[in-house]
Design a protein that fits this description.
This protein is α/β, with parallel strands linked by helices. It is built from nine helices and 15 strands. Strands 2-3-1-4-11-5 form a six-stranded mixed sheet, sandwiched between helices. It starts with 8 loop residues before the first strand and ends in a 6-residue tail after the last strand. The structure holds phosphoribosyl ATP and zinc ion. Zinc ion binds next to loops.
């Protein structure tokens, strides 16, 4: 059997679950080449000194904290709940969900205040305890593993604390949202030693790749034509535009401009550019952006 190479970086990811597919996609977008199929325990990257281990998501923080692996990808929710001794390096912008308090639609519980001395079922007892303690609302917490959403109907609890993303599980179980406890997304975590030991340089190279993919998601590459004399207005219209690439067009007095625009202000910026007089606007996705 193939062995793990100890000089390589080791990254633990979820073997099978909600984060698996998007994690593999993120790693591939980062230019890492590896095999991944269901029965695998680990894969070695062909083009980077990295071993990828496939494990249960709940085990990842402990593996990272103990140094069994250098890096891990987990939901922020697991960090909030378990508070492991690991360093968080990056938010990965997928696996979005929220930890919420919900109660049966038909009950007379309308706010978290109505939960005073009531029973709450959850797989997140620590987060739940902390939340209600900060609100000064005493509650009884029942720790349930899996299918928390059915506990109110079974008479086990008056309300639940659970993760939600689309909200359809809540709707399906006739539950209503009372409050958000925290938002979560997939995050990259590291063992504190890895940040300073012999693998530091490898980690820096890997981080450059990861950040390149994350920045690319935030920006779009835009090309446009415009009369030369409106260049100052165009420069004003694009937030953060320092020096766009400009080339002369054959048509006298006209230029072609290339720049990047941030995703969150994309449409309003395009509309502004059009209003000022830019034409022939072409938008291209950016695959990687190394800053
Ligand atoms: O087997 P393993 O232990 O590895 O996996 P797991 O079953 O413990 O975890 P998994 O695969 O369910 O979730 C892994 C991670 O995905 C979580 O730790 C979160 O960070 C993230 N995530 C994102 C979610 C959701 N979205 C989510 N919707 N985790 C769980 N859910 C649950 C939710 O609680 C509800 O019961 O999915 C159900 C459907 O949600 P709705 O709102 O879309 O209906
Ligand atoms: Zn799990």
């Amino acid at each position: 059997m193939k062995k793990l190479n100890n000089n390589n970086l080791k990254l633990a990811i979820q073997k099978k679950g909600r984060l698996t597919e998007e994690t593999l996609e993120f790693l591939r977008k980062s230019g890492l080449e590896f095999e991944s199929y269901k029965q695998r325990l680990f894969s070695s990257c062909r083009n980077f000194a990295l071993e990828i281990l496939y494990v249960r998501d709940d085990d990842i923080p402990d593996y990272v904290a103990s140094g069994t692996v250098d890096l891990g990808i987990v939901g922020q929710n697991i960090l909030n709940e378990k508070r492991p001794r690991v360093k968080k390096l990056l938010n990965l912008r997928y696996g979005f969900c929220s930890l919420i308090v919900a109660s049966p639609k038909e009950s007379n519980i309308r706010s978290i205040e109505d939960l005073r001395n009531k029973t709450i079922a959850t797989s997140y007892p620590e987060s739940t305890k902390k939340f209600f303690k900060e609100k000064n609302i005493p509650v009884e917490i029942v720790n349930i593993r899996g299918s928390v959403e059915i506990t109110p109907a079974l008479g086990v609890a008056n309300a639940i604390v659970d993760l939600t993303s689309s909200g359809s599980t809540l709707a399906l179980n006739d539950l209503k949202l009372l409050e958000n406890i925290y938002e979560s997304e997939a995050v990259l975590i590291a063992n504190a030693q890895t940040l300073v030991n012999g693998k530091k340089l490898l980690l820096e190279n890997l981080m450059t790749r990861f950040k390149g993919v994350l920045s690319a998601k935030e920006y779009k590459y835009v090309m446009m034509n415009a009369p030369k004399d409106i260049l100052p207005q165009l420069e004003n219209a694009v937030p953060g535009l320092k020096s766009p690439t400009i080339s002369q067009l054959i048509q006298p007095g006209w230029i072609s401009l290339q720049t990047v625009i941030k995703e969150d202000v994309f449409w309003e910026t395009i509309e502004r550019l059009k209003r000022i007089g830019a034409t022939g606007i072409i938008v291209l996705p950016i695959e990687k952006m190394i800053i």
